[in-house]
Design brief:
Elements (H helix, E strand, L loop, with lengths): L1 E4 L2 E4 L5 H8 L10 H5 L13 H13 L3 H6 L1 H16 L7 H18 L8 H18 L3 H4 L1 H4 L6 H25 L9 H7 L8 H15 L3
Antiparallel strand pairs: 1-2
Length: about 230
């Protein structure tokens, strides 16, 4: 069954071959960029960037330097430490509490260690700040925005998606650019490089602009808060 949600075409099917084709066919490689995704710079990150040279470059960088077996193996001690912190936090709680919230913070902390090279305790000021930014970004990204489907409504910003994104992005830029600047100012041994160091060390066609680095780093942290 097919119908239109404003100017967006929608397909409803119970045939498993249809989603299989959508996920594997290059015809559907480009993901529609929502207003919130564009405003939050995700159009420059791997999740929403159009399929092409830039997207393949991002994929190569991520698979080579962040999600490769060697990197995953090297971060095993980090994951054990975060798991121990999580157990300690749970042991100190009384009454009812949300395990999901603790798991989300632990997941985000793991990404923060891998991406930024930060060894943050659960509940630290920096971890809490990133958690707040990621939570709001995740909410905006998943929010049904009628302006995406009815473009003539976009300028009215009836759901305040645009205005909230405009307030969030400067905070994200300050947070991520501060960490990038700290990495630029320090001498980092090759063996201890984190993902920010890797991005800063790239040259030639693989080198990303500062806004591109912010978008990529922010998107990975945002994904770290999904649970």
């Amino acid at each position: 069954m097919a119908f239109s949600l404003g100017e967006t075409r929608v397909i409803v099917t119970s045939n498993p071959d249809v989603p299989k084709e959508i996920f594997t066919s290059p015809v559907f490689a480009d993901r529609p960029v929502k207003q919130s995704a564009y405003s939050l710079m995700f159009n420059r990150a791997i999740g929403f960037a159009p399929y092409g040279v830039y997207w393949r470059t991002l994929r190569k960088i991520a698979s080579t330097h962040l999600f490769c077996p060697r990197q995953i193996s090297n971060s095993e001690a980090q994951r054990f430490e975060i798991a121990n912190q999580m157990i300690t936090v749970i042991a100190g709680l009384k009454g009812q509490f949300s395990v999901r919230d603790i798991l989300k913070r632990a997941s985000l902390n793991n990404m923060m260690c891998s991406v930024f090279g930060r060894e943050c305790q659960l509940g630290s000021d920096e971890s809490d700040e990133l958690s707040r930014l990621s939570e709001e970004g995740y909410e905006l990204l998943g929010k049904l925005n009628w302006g995406d489907h009815l473009p003539w409504l976009a300028g009215l910003d009836l759901q305040k998606v645009g205005s909230r994104c405009s307030k969030l992005v400067p905070k994200v830029n300050r947070f991520v650019n501060r960490i990038i600047s700290e990495h630029r100012d320090r001498a980092q041994a090759l063996a201890n490089q984190d993902f920010v160091d890797v991005l800063l060390s790239l040259h030639g066609p693989d080198k990303l602009s500062d806004p591109g680095m912010v978008a990529v780093l922010w998107s990975f942290c945002e994904r770290g808060s999904e649970l």
